[in-house]
Amino acid sequence: MQINFYHLAIGCESSKSTLNPGTVSSYVWTELDYNRSSNEIASAVYHTLSSFDFEENVKMLRLICDGCGSQNKNTTLVGLLNYWLQYEAPLNAELVDMVFPVVGHSYIPPGRVLGESEKRYKKVSEVVHPEEYIDIIKEFAEVYKLEMMLWSRTGEVKLKRF
């Protein structure tokens, strides 16, 4: 039986930063756990925002997203960002800027993590368990598995860290 394995990478630095487990968070789940929808993406973004240590001089948060409507260009993610900015953001944070680069003409840093992981997957002849994917992703990012409770208005996100 084949199942879909979902991997969302979120980089938390500038585009010139080295991508490693200290600057990239990866969120993983399978289709047996959840779909790949705006709620899962919002949960991962919320977890990243909640656990990121913002410097005092940071006034604007810029999110560079791919243009997938079911994941990034939707009211769920915008609502989450509004909630976070209003209730949980550091006091110095004043603005969240969402950027959607032109499709096929830009290479956002988390895409490099996905690309490097893909190269490694192709060298493995057979994957029997999702943990085999996770072991590869751990080389490039801090890995979290989405679990039972996803983002809600109460701000609860349940994740398992590998």
What report would you give on this structure?
The structure is a single chain. The chain is an alpha/beta fold. The protein has one domain (5-161). 31% of the residues lie in helices and 20% in strands. It is built from 4 helices and 6 strands. It has a 4-stranded mixed β-sheet with strand order 1-2-5-6, with helices on both faces. Strand 3, helix 2 (75-88) and strand 4 (95-99) form a beta-alpha-beta unit. Helix 1 (38-51) runs parallel beside helix 2 (75-88). The radius of gyration is 16 Å and the shape is globular.
Give a nutshell description of this structure.
This protein is an alpha/beta fold and 162 residues long. The protein has helices spanning 38-51, 75-88, 109-123, 130-137, and strands at 5-11, 24-30, 60-64, 95-99, 142-146, 159-161.
